[in-house]
Amino acid sequence: MNVQVTGVIVVGAGGAGLTLATELALVGVPAVVLDRLPGRNLQSRAGAIQPRTAEMLALRGLLDDALGRSIDYRLVGGHFAGLPVPLDYAAWDTRYPHPVLLPQDQLEAVLEDRLTELGGQVLREHRLTGMQQDADGVTVTATAPGGELSLRGRYLVACDGAHSSVRKIIGADFPGEAATVRMGTADLLLTGDVDDSSSGHISSRIHTSPQGHFAMITPLANGLHKLIFSGPQTMLAERDAPVTPAEVREVLRATHGGALDVAEIRYSSRFSNASRQLEHYRHGRVFFAGDSAHIHSPAGGQGLNLGVQDAFNLGWKLAAVLRGDAGEELLDTYQSERHPVAARVLALTRAQGVIMGPQRDGGLGELRDVLTDLLRLPEANRYMAGVMAGLDLCLPSPDAEAHPLLGLRMPDLDLLLDDGERIRFSDLTRSGRGVLLDLGDTPLAAAAPWSDRVTHVRARVEAAGTGAEAVLVRPDGYVCWAGGAGLTETLTRWFGPVRTRG
Ligand SMILES: Cc1cc2nc3c(=O)[nH]c(=O)nc-3n(C[C@H](O)[C@H](O)[C@H](O)COP(=O)(O)OP(=O)(O)OC[C@H]3O[C@@H](n4cnc5c(N)ncnc54)[C@H](O)[C@@H]3O)c2cc1C
Question: When you count CB atoms within 10 A of the terminal residue's CB, does the N or C end of the chain come out lower?
Fold first, then answer.
C-alpha cells in the first residue's frame, strides 16, 4: 500500500484538532487532519467561548469572524454554578469581559475557513482504525472513501474526542469518576411561547420537574433552539440511542406544562457528567488534546475552551521541534503546563455539579447561600472570574524570584511604535511567532540572532504599562521573560539555540 508522509497527523476536526492544524499551517508545518464524519458537525453543542479563548482568537486575527457569527456577545456575564452573583470578568483587564455566545459549530467554521485559507485541509470520511509508533514516527491506517489510507507522520495528535480511538489503541488508562447523570442535547424547532429571556447574567433558564426532569433552552440562529435536558427516560438511554420527539416531548411537558412542543429535531446527541483525565498527555510520539485527554460535565462551559487552549499550547512547540529549532524537551512542557489546568477544571465542574443539583437538604441550600455571599466579596468574585474565564492562568516558572508578569498572559495593550503607528499587541502575533516587546530607551541587541523566530518590536505603551522594560511573549501569548538578566537563556529555552551558519 502507498504510504503518504507528513509532519503531524491530527486525528479529529473538532475545536482542538482544527486549532492545532491551523497553528501548524500558519507556520508552514505540514499536517494532515483526519475526521470520520462526511462533513462538518453542524450541531451547536457548546454555546460559548470564555474570555481567554476570545483573546487567543484575537492573537491570530480570528476574533472578528467569531464575533460576527456569535448570537449576542454582550448579552450575558459569567457565573459559577448558576449562583445569582455575576462574575466580573472586567476585573481581569481584558478587552473581552464576557463569554462570547458562539455555538461550537460556528467556532469550528471560523477555524476551518482559516485552515483552508492557509492551504490546509480536513480529510473527511477518514476514520482512524490502526496506529503504530516507532522511534522516528507514527504510522496510521484509516478507512477512506476510496479504500484504506496509510499515513506516516513524525508525530500524531489525538483530538478525537471523549471516546478517542487513539486512547483505546494505545490502551491508556482514563481514570476518574463514572457518569451519575445522563443528558441529551438537541437543536430543534419548537412550537409555543418560548421564554428566551436570560436570567440576568446566565444565558438560559433551567426548568425542572419534581420527577427529575430538567430543560435548559437557549436561542440559536434561524429560529432554532438548543435544548439541554434530562429525565427518567434519558437517564436510562444508551449513549448511541437516537433522541426521539417522544422523549423530548415528555421533558417539555414535565417542565413547561404543555406550553411548548417540539416540531422538528435537527441534530441531537447524548452526554454525561463522567469526569476523567489522562495521567500522561504524551505517549512517545503521540499527544492528546481536548476531550480525548479530559472529559467532564459541561457545567460552567469549559470543555471546548480547554481543548482550544491545549492546541494553542502544543501547536507552536511541535512546529519548533519539526522545523529543527527546538529540542524534544520543549514538548514535555505541554504536560507540565496543561495537565494541571484541566485537573482544576475537572475539580471545579464536579463541585458545580453538586452545588447546582436539585437537592436542598444535607446543608446544600446553606452551602449555596454561603458561596453566594462569598461571591459578593470583590476578591472572591475576581478569583472565581479569573478561573472561569481562563484569565488567571500562570504557567509554572522555575524561578521563585521571577518578575510578577512571568507566566501570565500578555495583556492586549495599545502600543505606539517608533514610527508613530498605533497598534494593539495582538497585531504583532498574527504570524504565530514569538514577540520581544522592547519598551526601554536602549534597544535590546541580544535577540538579533533569533530574528527568524521572534519579532522584535520597539514601542511605547499608550496607557498603564507592564511595569517591565521589555517582555518576551511566546506564540501562545504567555510572557516567558520580563526584563532583567537571562534573555539569551530564555530565548534558547523556548525558541531553540541560535543556528550556526555552515
Ligand atoms: C450540551 C453540551 C454543551 C457544552 N457546552 C460547552 C460550553 O458552553 N463551553 C465549552 O467550552 N464546552 C462545552 N461543551 C463541551 C465541548 O462540546 C467539548 O469539550 C468539545 O467538543 C471538545 O472538542 P474536541 O475537539 O476535543 O472534540 P470533539 O469536538 O468531540 O471532536 C472530535 C472529532 O474527532 C472525530 N473522530 C472521532 N473518532 C475518530 C476516528 N477514529 N477517526 C477520525 N476522526 C475521529 C469526530 O468525528 C470529531 O469531529 C459542551 C458539550 C455539550 C455536550
Answer: C
